[in-house]
Specification:
- The chain has 189 residues and is α/β, with parallel strands linked by helices.
- It has one domain.
- The protein is built from five helices and six strands; from the N terminus they run αβαβαββααββ.
- It has a four-stranded mixed β-sheet with strand order 4-3-5-6. A two-stranded parallel sheet has the order 1-2.
- α4 crosses α5.
């Protein structure tokens, strides 16, 4: 009976894991840097670590405990995220070309935005829009996967997007439009 009570109490506890901001930013920087570096070397993206599996709690929780995790426990590399990275790499040359021309921008939410599309012929504008849609679908899937893998929800999950946004902006070439946290746009020198 004591075991049953202990098990019931244990199922009513959840642990919020708080990752140091620097650890999250470093992990997203590494992921995006690997994407850009592998493409520039013409090679396949390698996963330097064994991918973890995602587990989600299934019970409802009444007690919440916060724990601060060490930097190495924030996971970005899973089989799903590595598959997404391969798809992003497949479009990277075209994305970079449009960024350099100032036709694609990196939003503060970590998504591509078509800029100056009205300066293109209609067929080019449609092709550019389709490219941005495909890229944004994969990026959104990536952000959801990383948030799920690390047990993040709500504002903490949107923080993953912000971290990736900074990573994609940092790796973007000259000419790319970048959206700042306050919503203003500037072109990268």
């Amino acid at each position: 009976m004591l075991f049953g009570v202990t098990a019931a109490v244990a199922s009513c506890v959840t642990v919020n894991v708080n990752f140091p901001e620097s650890a999250v930013q470093q992990a997203t920087d590494d992921y995006v840097r690997d994407l850009y570096r592998a493409k520039s070397k013409g090679g396949k993206i390698e996963d330097p670590s064994a991918p973890p599996t995602s587990t989600k709690p299934s019970a409802s929780f009444e007690f919440i405990t916060s724990v601060y995790a060490d930097a190495s426990s924030f996971k970005v590399r899973t089989p799903k995220s590595m598959g997404i990275q391969e798809k992003l790499a497949g479009r990277l040359d075209e994305v970079l070309q449009w960024k350099r021309q100032g036709m694609l921008g990196e939003s503060k939410e970590g998504l591509l935005v078509v800029r100056n599309g009205d300066k293109l012929k209609p067929i080019q504008a449609k092709k550019l829009e389709a490219l941005a849609v495909a890229e944004n679908e994969d990026r959104s899937g990536l952000y959801a996967e990383v948030a799920d893998t690390n047990g993040l929800a709500g504002d903490r999950a949107s923080g993953v997007r912000a971290n990736f946004a900074r990573s994609f902006q940092a790796e973007s070439p000259s000419g790319t439009w970048l959206q700042s946290a306050d919503g203003t746009w500037t072109q990268k020198p």
